[in-house]
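Tokenised fold entry reproduced for absentees:

. . .
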Amino acid sequence: MAFESRGRRSLVLGAVVVAGLSYAQYRRRRGSAASDSRYITERHAGAFLVRRRVAGDRLESVREAVAERCADPDDSRPLLGLEGATTASLFLDTGSEPELIWYVEVPRSATADWEDPESRVEAAFPLEHDALSETGAELESELLVHAVNPDRPRTATGEADGPLVVDSSELEDGVDVDLVGLHLKPGLAERLADRFAGLSRRVAAGDLELGPIERWSGAMLEAENMYTESILLERRPEGYVLCGYMETEAMAGVYDAYYDTRNPVARASEVVLGRVLEEPRQILEYPLGTGLETLAHAVDPDRPRRPEEC
């Protein structure tokens, strides 16, 4: 799961970096201040990553199977996987241990009554294929940041009357979707990530508000034409990895906006990410190779864009 090519900036930044470093930036929620925000955040929706191992000699077969799931451009349900899901993408990692990775977004109004949301999402993986198997990896995943642009499109390509689901060939000329994994340095960086994860839980529970960080991050979201951004922390046996999901108009535009602003969140993130990541160039320089193929992308035609729609 990963952070990605685009000047990885705004939310990671506000989140992992600024928030993790500066507990004082958060304050207790008072009245309905946070509910007045224009932005959907981790308070309003959850995001999940589910992985399946792929037999190395069956990659093309899996690609074909995913394309079949996208056969009807007006029906996104096969890729969304479960009732209530609003945005989903499938990625193929063709590295030494190939994986098919499913990103899915679900409003908290849908998951509120689920006894075990992670297991329910895991069971809803949108593709059954004899080339797929459980990863068997000891991996703990936790959502740190989720942010939605209040003007994000409700089609998979951004066109007003565009399709709801597309495969990789159609994505080339439409919305940019990426997933990137960033390894944290051991020690202090991992402790900061754990602290920020605790803060994120309190934000999601409504115990804390983000204050100016949310406004600054939201401003960057719109300046970059970033439609959806999620950051998950994966605790793996070999160390911590930040996984960044991005749905944007154009990844190159993200970088242009990131380096052309004095936004406090952007500038602070550049400094902090340079210190906590094992390979900061992976996120701070464009373009960057993620090693992942984006196979498919789907949206619900009524996916929420503002908190009141969740």
